[in-house]
Amino acid sequence: MTTMNRNKLRLLALATTLALGIGAAHATDITGAGSSFVYPVISKWSAAYAEKTGNRVNYQSIGSGGGIAQIKAGTVDFGASDMPLDEATLDKFGLGQFPDVIGGIVPAYNIAGIAPGKLVLDGQVLAKIFLGQITNWSDPAIAALNPDIALPSAKITVVHRSDGSGTSFNVTNYLSKVSADWKSKVGEGTAVKWPVGIGGKGNEGVSAYVKQIPNSIGYVEYAYAVQNKLGYARMKNAAGKVVSPETASFQAAAATADWSHAKNFNLLMTNAPGTDAWPITATSWVIMYKQPKNVANSKVAFDFFRYAYDDGKAAATALDYVPLPASLVTQIEGYWKTEFKQ
Amino acid sequence: MSSIPAIAVISSTDRRSRADARHDAWFRRLLKVCALLVLAALLGAALSTLWGGREVLFGQGLHFLTSADWNPVTDTYGALAPIFGTLVTSLIALVLAVPLSFGIALFLTEIAPTWLRGPVATAIELLASIPSIIYGMWGLFVFVPFMARVEPGLSATLGRIPLLGKLFEGPPIGLGLLTAGIVLAVMILPFISSVMREVFQTVPNRLKESSYALGSTTWEVVWDIVLPYTRSAVIGGIFLGLGRALGETMAVTFVLGNAYNITSSLLMPGTSISSSIANEFNEAVGTHRSALIALGFLLFVVTFVVLLISRLMLRRLAKREGA
Amino acid sequence: MAVDVYVRRRAINVAAMLLSGLAAAVGLVFLIWILWITVKNGLSALDLKLFTRITAYADEGGLANAIVGSLVMDMLALAICAPIGVLAGTFLAEYANRTKLGAVIRFLNDILLSAPSIVLGLFVYVIVVLPMSNLTHGAVSFSGLAGAIALALIGLPVIVRTTDEMLQLVPGTLREAALSLGIPQWKLTTQVLMRAAISGIVTGVLLALARLAGETAPLLFTAFGNNFMVANPLDKMASIPVAIYQYTNDPNPALHAIAWAGALLITLFVLLLSLCARWYLHRHRVTHD
Predict the structure, then answer these.
(1) Of A264, A202, A233, A211, residue with least CA distance to A66
(2) Nearest CA in chain A to B31
């Protein structure tokens, strides 16, 4: 056989692969991307949903910034972000957004001898640590909050996100609310100019670095801290009470939210006022086109989230997320009807 | 055959040779198109990154290169920190890899017993075949903890030296410019050493033997005869390694720390052009995306120049050899 | 005095020899260190579940879809770059050996050989992913095909270069003999020269496969990733290197174990390929000397 013939054969093989591939396409495969905050629970939902319906939801945890960018570029069927988009942006791109789940973000640490939930921090101290103003664990400001703990005299290594992140957005939003210094020097956003520290990719990357590097502190979604047995801090909230990160305190924060008046569900729960509220409670949003290029895929996406709101509750609770309250789900379904072409 | 009239034979060979000529022309054209594709791929990569980065490259111009302010909140992007990180890690890699490569090449051409040369050379070159993601994994899981144990020692000893000590201050977390530089050094070692080994072998035996006959030691032969003879190609090999180090992504992104820092200490975390792109490209829109693609263009141009120098230097020796 | 100089020269020589031996040892230590860690961690995680389960964010993840994705993309990439590379290399060796165009392409090919792979990924994102997404209204955007094209750009220069070099090794007498029989150039090239150089060309293809199979960076913005099993190259696709990247980035040790197993698979594959190619090439060179 000559090389030419072989080349023709190769081309033919290529063509058949393509043709077969198209023919063998599954029931419906849709792709979502974005927030690593919700990745653990979406991953569970997706597996269960595929088993039940045959439709497959491929979710890639690339960070909220990535979710927003990819849905704008139209390369995915839905984006997921823990930062809501403002009305102007939504209108400009013809996008709509709705919450999928609520969860808590915790400061995660790795200090030898200090068990998870032992360390207490407040917003001011956290801001100073992330600003690089408090550099040692034995700093008096930390000691004042933790009179019963023997803090080591060790340099603090700050771990933040290297990618655009809704988790970062909620943390920086919270720090901006409680520290004027933070607000003026750094501000809030999915990606900010971090004064100190090292960057990990995704909640996964931050957890990995905190786990590996002694005397480090980072911030992650609660499920990541629990699953990876990281130390996590209790926080002094807006009411001045020290609260633990747990479903109850996340729910307490969520209870202060008045969704019915939040246009496009644009509402943040950081520094919530309730006495038992966890101060860095965050919502994750799904972002989709109102006039989708691919209506069939869009339909599957709605079906997937409807499934998540009902059948997915247990999975969410098991991972210490807070499922959306029934009233909010009703409101979301109304929003789907009025805003989205289905 | 004999029954066919002579005229028919002529016209049929004539037709055949015309057909052959036509086929030849088409064949030639096909080959040429394929070869031009190589050219198109390279030009395309350069032009598409130039186009994608135009907003930042032409909008900000030099300011993009000189500003260290990479701040997505204010949507301002200065490339100094990633450029700094790329250059520093590549320099560390060269400082470590060049003498090591020279040693390896010397060992393989002059010192090792003949039976050992082949296997050792192959083994060193295998380092080049290991995928860079494996270097990244090994770097993160094995080498970073190793460095975290070594670094306090470095800070306590080298860190005490005035001036030079500044390079070794900082928290011993194992991640950072130095670690990334060392991983890069291991990666480029096989490239530099194999070029050196190959060019050392091209030195005419009579030159070396004349020197030996005058009573030179092996080291003197290598230092005074072999190295000067192959100088340009050795430099070419070094630049080849540098080109590799500059563009490497997966091996450094895990161990560099991903922080937009410009620090005097090599133990501090930093970022590099390629790891910034890998980390942020999927999420970047607007100016941010343009800045990342502009970084890609920059990387492309720098590696192009470095590799250009490498080729020219290597060719110089080849020419002399041919002459 | 003379003795002093002599002793010093001897001492320098011995030191240099020792240091050079040490340098070789350092190189070998790193090779063995990396390989040993990969084999040790990889073997202990290597089991059947790896091949039957798909990637997931959970302890019970596998690599099945990543293996299929890698196979599909690597084969597609070869199908793209092997014919183009062989033909382009033939052009350089047989038609443009001493021309300016040949020199330029040869040089650019060498640059492409060392070009930063992440930039090639950006390039394919701009010329394949975005246009496809616009053309198909988002139905096809990131895809295994785009990943394969990016990988093909990595493999192409390897094949061009080896084909070029191997054809140049074919003795000129073979060409002259064939031409004197009146064989047209294209037949001479495809049926005589390529056949003579076939083992070298195969080596090039193997080396290209070894090179592109381990690449991660060009796939990040082209194939994207998929947590399900797909064989359709127009879908977003998982691959072993990207799965290793994602698993390595995770704090979960169970996922690290899977990443090591993947690392072992890919490293063995790549090293075996390069050893085979080397052996093949060696044999070939010997026959021509």
Answers:
(1) A202
(2) A4
pLDDT at residue B10, rounded to an integer: 58
Picking from B144, B259, B280, the nearest residue to A194 by CB comes out as: B259
Query: Between B177-201 and B114-129, two packed helices, what is the crossing angle to 10 degrees?
Result: 140
Matching residue, tokens 């000397």: C289
What's the DSSP call for residue A102? E
For residue B145, the chain A residues in CB contact (below 8 A) are: 212
Taking the CA atoms of chain B, what radius of gyration do you get in angstroms? 26
* ipTM for the predicted complex: 0.90
Instruction: Categorize the per-residue pLDDT at A21 as very low, low, confident or very high, splitting at 50, 70 and 90.
Output: very low
- Interchain proximity C79–A10, CB inside 8 Å: yes
Nearest to A72 by CA among B92, B283, C109, C91: B283
Where does chain A have alpha helices with state H?
3-23, 39-53, 64-73, 87-93, 123-131, 140-145, 166-178, 180-185, 202-212, 222-227, 247-255, 295-310, 313-318, 326-339
Can you say whether the dihedral through the CA atoms of A313, A318, A324, A327 is positive or negative? positive
Q: Quote the tokens at residue A15.
A: 């063509």
Q: Where are the alpha helices (DSSP H) in chain B?
A: 6-52, 54-60, 62-66, 80-106, 114-129, 132-138, 144-157, 177-201, 205-213, 218-220, 227-247, 250-253, 273-280, 286-322
Cα C208 to chain centroid distance, Å, stands at 4
**Residue contact B42–C108, C-beta within 8 A:** yes
Rg (CA), chain A: 22
Q: Does B27 touch chain C (CB under 8 A)?
A: yes
DSSP lists the bridge partners of residue C181 as none
Which residue, chain included where needed, has tokens 């955007």? Answer: C141
* B190 contact partners, CB below 8 Å, separation of at least 6: B124, B125, B126, B127, B128, C27
Burial class of residue C95 in the structure, from the number of CB atoms within 10 Å of its CB (0-12 exposed, 13-18 middle, 19+ buried): middle
Amino acid, res. C47: D
Tell me the backbone φ, ψ of residue B37, rounded to 5 degrees: -60, -35
Q: Does B133 touch chain C (CB under 8 A)?
A: yes
Please state, in angstroms and rounded to a whole number, the distance separating the CA atoms of residues A8 and A27: 33
- Give the gyration radius of chain C's Cα atoms: 24
Which of 217-236 (B) contact C at CB < 8 A? 217-220, 222
Bridge partners for B37 per DSSP: none
Which of the 8 DSSP states describes residue B172? Answer: -
Gap between the Cα atoms of A47 and B252, Å rounded: 33
At A3, the pLDDT band (50, 70, 90 cuts) reads very low
Q: Which of residues 134-153 of B touch C (CB under 8 A)?
A: 134-138, 140-142
C-alpha C154/C-alpha B311 separation (Å) is 19
What is the structure's pLDDT at A62? 87
Kindly report the pTM of this predicted structure: 0.87
Task: Say whether residue B309 is in contact with chain C using an 8 A CB cutoff.
Answer: no
Query: Which residues in chain A have their CB less than 8 angstroms from residue C86's CB?
Result: 3
Report chain A's terminal Cα–Cα distance, integer Å: 55
pLDDT at B9 over 70: no
Neighbours of A116 (CB within 10 A): 18
Largest pairwise CA distance in chain C? 86
- In order of A140, A273, B253, C64, C225, the CA distances from C240 in angstroms are 48, 47, 18, 9, 10
Sorted by sequence, the CB contacts under 8 Å of residue C117 that are 6+ apart come out as B247, B249, C154, C215, C217, C218
Nearest to B282 among A70, A157, A199 (CB): A70
Q: Which of B177, A128, A194 has its CA nearest to residue B169?
A: B177
SS3 A157: strand
Rounded to an integer, the average pLDDT of A174-200 is 92
| CA pseudo-torsion sign A69, A75, A81, A85 | positive
Residue C213 touches partner B, C-beta closer than 8 Å: yes
Q: Which amino acid is at A50?
A: A
